Amino acid sequence: MTYDPNNIFAKILRKDIPAKIVYEDDYCLAFPDINPKSPIHILVIPKGSYTDLYHFSAEASPQEIEGFFRGLAKVAKQFGLSETGFRSIANTGKDGGQEVPHFHVHLLGGRTQSPF
Ligand code: AMP
User: Percent of the chain at pLDDT above 70?
Assistant: First the structure.
C-alpha cells in the first residue's frame, strides 16, 4: 500500500490537527483514542511514514523499530499498564480492519479485557 500523507495520523504528527499528546520522542507519538474501547485506550504511532505493522516490520530501520517499541514501553509504564497488563492491537490492512493507514498500536487497559 502506498503511504497516504494526508491520513489523519499524519496530520496529527505534523500538528495540522490537534490531539492530546501524552508522550512524544524522536521515534513515536502517543495520544488517546478518540473512541475509547477501554478505560485506558492509547494509540502509539511511529514518526516515520509506515502504513501498517507489515510495512513497519519489513522496512523500518533498526533504530526506528527499537525507538518505537522503547517509546511504547514508556507509554505503558506512564499509564500503569506495565503493572496491570494490557491488550495491544495492531490492525493491519483490509482484512485486519485497519481504518487509519498509518501504523499504530492500540494499548487497551484499565480493566480486564474480554477473552480474545
Ligand atoms: P484502526 O481501526 O486500527 O485503524 O484504528 C483507528 C483508530 O483511530 C480508531 O480506534 C479511531 O477511534 C481512532 N481515531 C481516529 N481519528 C482519531 C483522532 N483524530 N484522534 C484519536 N483517535 C482517532
Answer: 100
